[in-house]
Structure to design on (585 residues):
């Protein structure tokens, strides 16, 4: 499907308004064209002929025409606006719906800020271009042709001046516009960079301030803004000559016509009224020409935007539900069968290489390893946030690709490393885990995650409103709420990706003990930087640069695995600074 076909589907609902608009505009033109003719009659019959009744008669007719013209103009503007605004609404709605289906890999491809630009600036471009197209694309050429015919019917000889002027201007416009369009198209690509800079900075403004990176961020943003400024200036530099060129031509034509016309009037080949109408048509023809070239520029400019929109609309989620999905996960066992994984397929850069491991249902597994050793990547394959590039990931004995996606994710709960709360009460946030959970269930999950102790200290308790992004709770409190939210799902497998990093070790131990007691059958996978967090795990997986360095009980690892021993020694012998308690952040 090409871009036009894809976008046409979105306009279908507004076919009637889209078809009616040009007709209204034509109506307006027809009426507008009558006015100079009537003008000529007022002058020739009324003024030169000294007849008051003629002036009243033709004047009334002109008034009626003006009202009819106004009606057509308003109707055209209204239906054009309706069609283009509706078009934009449909585009945004369908883009948004499709984005909801995107996998992590799809989102990586566009980047969140790229998606924002496409849904805002690009849609607005297409909307404006479409409105312009509806209102002007038929109207302007039509108006030009009618005016030309009218002018020729008044006096063919003098009207050849128009023809020459139009051809001259058309050539100039084509030359200027092709150059300008190129710059405008470049501008829209730069908007992505600008938005990226804004989004990154504003959404993490607290971090930026904490690290005193304002100046760096400011210069990054200024560079993006400067880029756009330069392109706009270059584009406008090209446009600058358009107006003087237009006006120069108009004045030249008016002068020529007045001069030749005056001679013709003296020679009685032309009346004064006819000369007046000829001058009115002159403006009309040249304005229409300008409108036509403007439509071309807008359409050309928006074509880049249209393509970017179509890309989002047609992007297929890289994770598809299988034909005949399984809805039940049998147990909490996890197997990796010679798994390789690459974020960028085809580059040969692998984030995971030859991962082969068996985890029994109900086991508690710790994962440890340096930052960037692909711990998060590994667990993301379990709930199928990404698909393995080679090999097979199995949950409950079946390949994760065989499960219904929603069912799998409900039974494999992940507390992500970069986690977010949403605006709403604590109850609302917890119920993301289970829509119809009762208050008691929510409280029970919060207790298990040791969240109830601080929630109860809030004046509004569980009805406390969390601000957007969860900025009104501390890091440790947020993490505990996220754990409670995941526990509410009552999953067969719970994955915690560094989810207790901001919780003190004493509280952390309380959480793991409570979970072990309440949910003994649940498989727990705990990623942590701290030895103390995984010391009680049945087995620990040591990751090193995307490979398994060791997978054994903590006691055995201490004897056999150098990486583990090193981490152990620096943290335990050095004295665990976290042991003091209190909250780390
Ligand atoms: N969405 C992504 N796109 C491309 N590369 C990624 C993405 N996420 C992580 N990586 C890369 O994969 C490697 C492992 O990252 P990650 O699994 O997050 O490590 P860890 O959780 O152990 O700190 C890193 O080199 C990181 O840069
Ligand atoms: Mg990580």
């Amino acid at each position: 499907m090409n871009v036009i076909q894809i976008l046409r589907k979105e306009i279908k609902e507004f076919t009637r308004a889209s078809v009616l608009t040009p007709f209204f505009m034509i109506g307006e033109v027809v009426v507008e064209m009558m006015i100079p003719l009537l003008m000529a009659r007022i002058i020739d019959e009324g003024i030169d002929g000294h007849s008051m009744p003629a002036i009243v008669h033709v004047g009334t007719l002109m008034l009626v025409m003006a009202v009819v013209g106004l009606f057509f103009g308003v109707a055209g503007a209204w239906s054009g606006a309706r069609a283009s605004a509706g078009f934009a609404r449909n585009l945004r709605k369908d883009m948004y719906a499709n984005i909801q289906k995107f996998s992590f890999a799809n989102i990586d491809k566009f980047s969140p800020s790229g998606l924002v630009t496409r849904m805002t600036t690009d849609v607005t471009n297409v909307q404006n271009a479409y409105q312009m197209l509806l209102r002007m694309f038929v109207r302007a050429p039509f108006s030009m042709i009618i005016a030309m015919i009218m002018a020729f019917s008044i006096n063919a000889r003098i009207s050849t001046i128009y023809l020459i002027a139009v051809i001259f201007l058309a050539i100039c416009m084509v030359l200027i516009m092709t150059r300008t369009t190129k710059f405008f198209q470049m501008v829209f690509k730069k908007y992505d960079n600008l938005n990226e800079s804004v989004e990154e900075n504003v959404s993490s403004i607290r971090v930026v301030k904490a690290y005193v990176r304002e100046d760096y961020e400011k210069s990054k943003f200024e560079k993006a803004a400067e880029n756009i400024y330069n392109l706009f200036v270059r584009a406008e530099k090209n446009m600058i000559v358009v107006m003087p060129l237009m006006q120069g031509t108009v004045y030249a034509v008016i002068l020529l016509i007045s001069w030749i016309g005056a001679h013709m009037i003296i020679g009685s080949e032309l009346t004064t009224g006819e000369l007046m109408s000829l001058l009115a048509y002159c403006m009309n023809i040249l304005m229409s020409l300008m409108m036509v070239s403007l439509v071309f520029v807008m359409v050309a400019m928006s074509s880049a935007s249209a393509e970017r929109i179509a890309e989002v609309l047609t992007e297929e989620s890289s994770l598809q539900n299988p034909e005949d999905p399984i809805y039940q996960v049998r147990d909490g066992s996890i197997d990796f069968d010679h798994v390789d994984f690459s974020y960028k397929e085809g580059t040969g850069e692998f984030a995971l290489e030859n991962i082969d491991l068996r985890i029994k249902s109900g086991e508690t597994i710790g994962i440890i390893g340096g930052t960037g050793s692909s711990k998060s990547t590994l667990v993301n394959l379990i709930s199928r946030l990404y698909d393995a590039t080679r090999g097979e990931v199995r949950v409950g004995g079946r390949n994760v690709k065989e499960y219904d996606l929603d069912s799998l994710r409900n039974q494999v709960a992940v507390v992500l490393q970069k986690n977010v709360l949403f605006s709403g009460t604590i109850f609302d946030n917890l119920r993301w885990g289970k829509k119809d959970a009762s208050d008691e269930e929510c409280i029970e999950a919060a207790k298990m995650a040791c969240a109830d102790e601080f929630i109860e200290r809030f004046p509004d308790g569980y009805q406390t409103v969390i601000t957007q992004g969860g900025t009104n709770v501390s890091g440790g409190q947020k993490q505990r709420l996220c754990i409670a939210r995941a526990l509410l799902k009552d999953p067969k497998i719970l994955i915690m990706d560094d989810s207790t990093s901001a919780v003190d070790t004493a509280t952390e131990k309380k959480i793991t003990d409570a979970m072990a007691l309440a949910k003994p059958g649940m498989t727990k996978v705990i990623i942590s930087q701290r030895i103390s967090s995984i010391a009680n795990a049945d087995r620990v997986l040591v990751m090193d640069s995307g490979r398994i360095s060791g997978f054994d009980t903590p006691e055995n690892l201490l004897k056999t695995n150098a990486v583990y021993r090193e981490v152990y020694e620096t943290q335990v012998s050095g004295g665990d600074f976290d042991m003091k308690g209190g909250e780390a952040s």
